Amino acid sequence: TYDVCLKLTKEALTIQKPDVVCTSGTDSQVNHRTVVLRRQATGSLGLSIKALGGAEHNVPVVISKIFKDQVADQTGKLFVGDAVLQVGAVHLLRTAGDEVTITVRYLREVPSFLKLPLGSPGPDHSRVSSPLFDSGLHLNGNGNGSSAPSPPSPSANEPKYEKRWLDAVCLPLLMARVSRYKAGTDKLRSNCFEVVALDGASTNILQFCTAAESTDWLQAISANINDLTQENIKMVNKFCSSDDQIVYMGWACESREGSAAGRTSVFKFLALRGPYFSIYRSPPVIADWGQAETTYNLYEVLFKVHKLWMAEDCWLQARLYLGLEHSPEQQDNESLYFSILVGHGQSHTFRVELATDLAIWEKSFQRAVFLEVQRIRSKSYMCSSQGNVLSFTVDFASGFTCSEATAKTVLWRYKFSQLKGSSDDGKTRVKLLFQNAESKQIEMKELEFANLTAVLHCIHSFIAAKVASMDPLFMCGQSFSGSYMNS
């Protein structure tokens, strides 16, 4: 691991790494610096070095500490994190005479054990490392406190150097995704997460000192990704028909039952667009909306949030809805999942990173289903009862109607409010219990469907849309076109 600096803007996350740059004068070598060290009378050079990896040969020798006001510091050309490029550097620095010439190159991804400071990049701060980790070879003389001679005045053309944070990786946040989990698993990382751009370029892993700091960055990056997604949705919808408007789209991690190793997970891009809920391997461009792995009719699926156990600690629930991260011991109870239940008892289970993501998906599904029910107004299914082929219709305005399939004769009709209960065998048969408007008696209607689950989900969607249409708060929060309002 090594230290980086993060810079977050609306459109991108930039990862900066420390580097040494020439600030004035002429520098003939772009990446290398050649420095002449002249020993003081005490024989000191004023620096400490470490051999990375611990081997005697073919490993970088890195400056791990520079002592203030001694020879190495006075040159202004050496920095903690500089790798000495000469072969046999340790022997060279130990045995050289009064003058030693070394060539160095700054390691941008310097190991964290050197403890480079993350503060001001000025020359006084940038060449000092933590005294807790300077166990390498010290070349700072006898430490008798004798004053160091004044350094020679540099010439006008002599290059001057500073350590600065420089942009190393820029990750566009449009359609990017974040993950706190170890790749392909449902196991949380500790105080860290990954950011992956649309093109698949990854930051590797960003690790933070505390869980709070990690959560702050995760929330900030996720908020920017969501804002860009909303802007992109508005732009795409300008070129789509009223029947193909995108309600919401974004990444979620599909969790699957694996082998003996347990659950596996893979990121999928989900879209609520027009009549459909679609699952993609990657975000589609406008011309590729038809390239989904799987597509379902919105009114025939059911959205279900996996509720958490909140038996003792109410603060757990409060922190969850704020999107805060918790200890690894709590992760099994706090993972944020939702399922899409489809026909024949099948389902897809997805995981999101923050409670705010879960809330967005839940509200988006409610809105998408409502708009689709408003658009189609009614849906009919073929069914049978006592050997007769029938047509069962769910209508937003009139409720439930059952007719003969051929003659179209209406056998019975009930309003949504008259449905008092139902039961099914989990396969094909369902019993619907209606209250007679006049006699107030319960009347049972038994029907058999080829895809019972789809019919039950459709009934649920229409009833939910009917209830929502009577809720002023829900209606005020919707954006409808004239065709929806007048249909």
From TrEMBL:
Residues 34-122 form the PDZ domain. Residues 139-148 have a biased composition (Low complexity). Keywords: Cytoplasm, Cytoskeleton. The keyword Disulfide bond does not apply. It is found in: Cytoplasm, Cytoskeleton. One of its GO terms (cellular component) is dystrophin-associated glycoprotein complex. Residues 139-159 are annotated as: Disordered. SUPFAM superfamilies: PDZ domain-like (SSF50156), PH domain-like (SSF50729). It holds the Pfam family Syntrophin_4th. GO terms for molecular function: structural molecule activity. InterPro entries: PDZ, PDZ_sf, PH-like_dom_sf, Syntrophin, Syntrophin_4th. Belongs to the syntrophin family. PANTHER family: GAMMA-2-SYNTROPHIN, SYNTROPHIN. This is Syntrophin, gamma 2. The lineage of its organism: Eukaryota, Metazoa, Chordata, Craniata, Vertebrata.
